Every structure is written in structure tokens, then in C-alpha cells.
Amino acid sequence: MNLQQAIHWLEQGGGARVLKISALVLGLLALSATVAFKQFHGPRTEETLRQADLGRSIASGE
User: Against a cut of 0.90, is the pTM above it?
Assistant: First the structure.
């Protein structure tokens, strides 16, 4: 298989399906990594912790 045949296979044949699935998997991995980073990253500063504690106290009526 030469380069031209490989490119044709990627564009037309089973390679198009492989590329679509690969792009979908990479997209899902990037999205899940972004969500995991944003969701499970804790507060960055002491001020943020104080604000969260104050918010909890106000919400519970203290």
C-alpha cells in the first residue's frame, strides 16, 4: 500500500470510520479530563475557604 492508497483508504474506506471514532474518543477524553479537573479541584486560597464557611453558616441560619 503506497501513500496515495493509504490516503484514499482514510478518506473513503474503513479509514473514515476509524478517524471518526478516534476523533470522538479523543473528544470525550478531553471533555472528561476538563470536567474532572474543574470538578475535583479544591479551593485555591484561604479566602475562598472562609467565604465557603460563611456561606454555609448563613445557609444554616447561624
Answer: no
